[in-house]
Amino acid sequence: MYVQPAMAAPPALLAPPRPGWGATALVALASLAAALLALLAFGPMITPDSPSYLAYAEALRAGPLPEGEALLRQASSPATIFRTPGYPAVIAALQALAPDRWIWGLVALQMLAQAALAGLAHRVALALGLRGWVAVAAALMPAVGVTIAMQVAVMTDALYGALAGGAGLLLLKAGLGRGSLRAVALAGVMLGAGLLVREATAYLVLAFLPAAAIAAGRGAARRIIGLALLLAPVLLAAGWLMEENHRRSGHAVLSTTKQIVMVQSVLPLLARGVPVFDGDDLFDRTVREHVVPRGYQGLDAMNDALFAAGMTAPEIAAVAGDRYWRAWQRHPLEMLRAMVVRAPVKLFQIGFMPVDAVAELHLRFDRPRPWYGRIDAIMDRLRAGSPVALAALVALAGSRAVALLLAGAAMLAPLLLRRDPRLPALLGAWLVCGGFLGVYLPVHVEQRYLMPVAPLLVLLGMAVLSRGAQAVREARHFRP
Length: 480
What we know:
Blueprint: H1 11-14, H2 21-30, H3 33-42, H4 50-62, H5 69-72, H6 79-82, H7 86-97, H8 102-127, H9 132-140, H10 147-151, H11 157-176, H12 181-197, H13 201-215, H14 220-249, H15 258-264, H16 267-271, H17 282-294, H18 299-308, H19 313-330, H20 332-341, H21 354-364, H22 375-383, H23 387-411, H24 413-416, H25 423-440, H26 454-477
Helix pairs in contact: 2-8, 4-7, 7-8, 8-9, 8-11, 11-12, 11-13, 11-25, 12-13, 12-14, 13-14, 13-25, 15-19, 17-18, 19-20, 22-23, 23-26, 25-26
């Protein structure tokens, strides 16, 4: 019996039309909502780190930066060598343009940078094959996280997150296509600029190299060129900054933050009584006097005491770095344990944390954490019969579950997508995410440090979950 073959479905019925740039613009605008509400409710935020950026900006506007003894004997942690110049330069430029309203310009710039990042994430989500509300959700989820507070703060995180996060997204998008040396070059420029905002880029850039090789396209020559295009701006920025600091201080350093960070990194060992600083030299004696009994609160006193004894900031930073590596040699298991201690579960919620982000916003403005951000307070109200408490519990527990599901799916992406044609590009993004953890966990990590990889983590998780949903649909379709 003759059976007329079924007519092929029009392409428009096989797949929905790909959203245009208008949809992406709407996503970028929508990503501003949470930060705008935070700004209206709290205003701009000055943090404990803000004064050093402001001091650097003031020095830039005042004229030539201090150098020689005028720099080294200025303070235990002179701002113009303790910090990198990128963020203070932005502040100084805005202060010159609008002396009385510069902070509003800074917040606006940070919000626009993060909105552009959300828009780019939407384009990458579409390139991944995510459609409709899934692509929109993937782009907007990180916008209701720790970025809410950082966009309204005088801190580097929002701008750096846009630079480093944008570089990762550009490489992922190029890797999903046929490759683009132009995209790799732009990512390199963004990371080079990022190094002037955060010196850790000198180490973090290594995590971007596999993604750059994939994004460059096929062929050994293109991949080598891609690696060079990514590395060159970072190396040039690092070389210039080290040379400038050497000219001013006599020490070729990116910054002297090691004088804080490298001692902070061994605090978990000190809390357990591990003899990290058991020498008789000035540095070890001073750490034992100020940091061992007081922890983080004793770091400033430690630096002031060492400075009063004649040590300069670069010298303190160098010895602190030496003691850090000595701790690894003497106490490797304790240092590994410290890495585990520095990785609480909340670290993996960066992809989506609307309730926790709002609750922690109160803490950053020195206000009590609201009841809806605490499980114990919610349960107390729930036992009293409050229906609002039930809604709060669902929102808090549900958002945490979604965040952890995304993070878990992202972690398993190389395994669960091993037969997926998108795997090479996704593997590059996966290594970028892992690289950030690999750099920060051995030293010190906070949720805000992982802001740049939050969009990548969500896209990885969404790619895995959407592929699993597709597999389920196909199984049901072909079920006899």
